Amino acid sequence: MNMKKLLIIGCGGFLGAVLRYVLISLVQNFSKDGLFPHGTLVVNVAGCFLIGILSNLLDTPAALTAELRFFLIIGFLGSFTTYSTFGNETIFLVQNQRYTLALLNVMMHMILGFSAVLAGRAIPV
């Protein structure tokens, strides 16, 4: 293992996790019902949009250094987006017999997530 690479990933991960916590908290504070996980949806869709933009940069030779890729993609976006929380919140909705909200959560993550990646990739770099 390369210690420099691990530290770069760790720094990106720290920033992504902190920003995820802050954004989820802010979005959930504005949620009317407090039950639907709006915050997780927002960060995951935002992360999909950003990975779409970064994918374009990766297609451009030498646009991102290896260190910047480790920092942004593996570290920052890896900790900013949260598939495990999405899964856990969906199970919570099912366990509380909120089947429509659970299905809506899954559908919105899939449709908005894929759409956000496409939108990000459509931005010229």
Structural overview:
The chain is mostly helical and 125 residues long. The protein has one domain (3-30, 37-122). The protein has five helices and no strands. Helix 2 packs parallel to helix 5 (99-122) and helix 4 (83-95) packs antiparallel against helix 5 (99-122). It is globular and about 50 Å long. The model has no long low-confidence stretch (mean pLDDT 94).
Mean pLDDT: 94
Query: How helix-rich are the residues, as a percent range?
Result: over 70%
3D shape: globular
Give the SSE string.
HHHHH
Short description:
By secondary structure, this protein is mainly alpha-helical. It has five helices and no strands. Helix content is 82%, strand content 0%.
How are the elements arranged and paired?
Blueprint (H helix, E strand, L loop, with lengths): L2 H28 L7 H22 L6 H15 L2 H13 L3 H24 L3
Structural features:
single chain, 125 residues, mainly alpha, 82% helix, globular
